Amino acid sequence: MVYITAILANWIFGYKIFTQGLIQLGQPATVKVAANLVRLLAYNNKNMLQTGLIVGGWDKYEGGKIYGIPLGGTIIEQPFAIGGSGSSYLYGFFDQAWREGMTKEEAEQLVVKAVSLAIARDGASGGVVRTVIINSEGVTRNFYPGDKLPLWHEELEPQNSLLDIWGSASGSSPEPMRE
Amino acid sequence: MGYKFVILRPYCASPLTMVPYVTGTSVIGIKYKDGILIAADMGGSYGSTLRYKSIERLKAIGKHSLLGASGEISDFQELLRYLDELILYDNMWDDGNSLGPKEVHSYLTRVMYNRRNKFNPLWNSVVLGGVKNGQKYLGMVNMIGVHYQDNHVATGFGNHLAVPILRDEWREDLSFEEGIKLLEKCMRVLIYRDRSAVNKLQVVEEWVVQSIAKITEEGVSISPPYSLKTFWEFSAFKNPTAGAAGSW
């Protein structure tokens, strides 16, 4: 099966939305249109693709909208969507933590917390958290390195070395490598 | 569905294989005195995960028909597109005639059967009901093209859990209230016993009021989503070891 998420995304946005859509309509396509273009690819190639997608954005007609497009090519509008291998661990979390009408800051904190919880338990998740906020003002990207995320059960505060905990005759050890 | 997927040549261009991903469970339909009632829950299961709980699996088609689908939701959405086109062309004739439930059922049967013959099925079982010119119609089609009409139909687990109840308790002259109660009795059993059922359901109703073969009023209504109460306080559940001294 082809893991094609990035290739699909690039094609939809580069070609269909901007080239065809923007040129023909004279304005950016709506989120619904973008999601349906993705759905067409996912549905019509369901034999060859194994990719679950979430299309989210903002347009002036409907405001912020999220469309989930799981395996098979179903399209479903949702107030929030989760997917991917680590998402199994987040269904209960979102059932409890998600609320209608969160502010931008609350919502971003929620997703960062969610991804960090998934990283804690999913072997296939890790590294950094990157977020994108899309609203009437535009697109904002944020970056959270892995060592700045909260710690969960059975995780310990990272140290430079055991020597710092036990202490040593020659003082503390050097900082970890940068770059 | 009971059908295992058949891999003839996996991961290739020709769709000789199919497996459902996001699925809806049972749909139940009955005729009642004044029309048709169909019920379905709002769940979209992803394997054993109850992933989506707000999927509307009941839709009105044209002026006269109601469709309820179980099975792969993406294929149901595609079916709705086919039917949209069918109804559009029917309206464009602008000839005063409109496709009734019998015609829509026939169309769906042809679509499903032809796809089955090409080994590229729409992985659904659908209930198609409606009223036209005072005539009630209720039918079922599934992914292999099996189709029939009856006074009560069901898909999936509904065949095993609901149909026996309906065979026993259905009557020609059910009132609206009795029909709803009967459907809810069936849905409740499904909530208890079908692992893919979700306790959030919708009912659609198409009714016609006639007096001596003249239609005075007709219409379609879709209920808002609602949940049924369930009962779990059986003494056998509360004290499971009462009959087995020494057990815990």
Oligomer: heterodimer
Largest interface, counted with CB-CB under 8 A? A-B, 16 and 23 residues
- C-alpha-based Rg of chain A, rounded: 21 Å
Distance between the termini of chain B: 38 Å
Percentage of helical residues of chain B? 25-40%
Give helix and strand order of chain A, one letter per element, not per position.
Answer: HHEEEHHEEH
Radius of gyration of chain B equals 20 Å
Q: What is the total tally of β strands of chain B?
A: 13
Tally of domains of chain A:
2
Outline the structure in words:
The complex is a heterodimer of chains A (179) and B (248). With 179 residues, chain A is of the alpha+beta class. Chain A has two domains: 1-81, Aminohydrolase, N-terminal nucleophile (Ntn) domain (Glutamine Phosphoribosylpyrophosphate, subunit 1, domain 1), CATH 3.60.20.10; 82-156, Glutamine Phosphoribosylpyrophosphate, subunit 1, domain 1 (4-Layer Sandwich), CATH 3.60.20.10. Chain A contains five helices and five strands. In chain A, helix 1 (5-25) packs across helix 2. The model of chain A has no long low-confidence stretch (mean pLDDT 88). Chain B has 248 residues and is α+β, with helices and mostly antiparallel strands. In chain B, strands 1, 4, 5, 6, 7, 8, 9 and 10 form an eight-stranded antiparallel beta sheet that branches. In chain B, strand 2 (27-32) and strand 3 (35-41) form a beta hairpin. The relative contact order of chain B is 0.18. The model of chain B is unreliable at 6-10 (pLDDT under 50). The chains are: A alpha+beta (179), B alpha+beta (248). The interface between A and B is medium-sized, with 16 and 23 residues. Chain B: Belongs to the peptidase T1B family. Chain B: It comes from Carnegiea gigantea. Chain B: It is found in: Cytoplasm; Nucleus. Chain B: Keywords: Cytoplasm, Nucleus, Proteasome. Chain B: This is Proteasome subunit beta. Chain A: This is Proteasome endopeptidase complex.
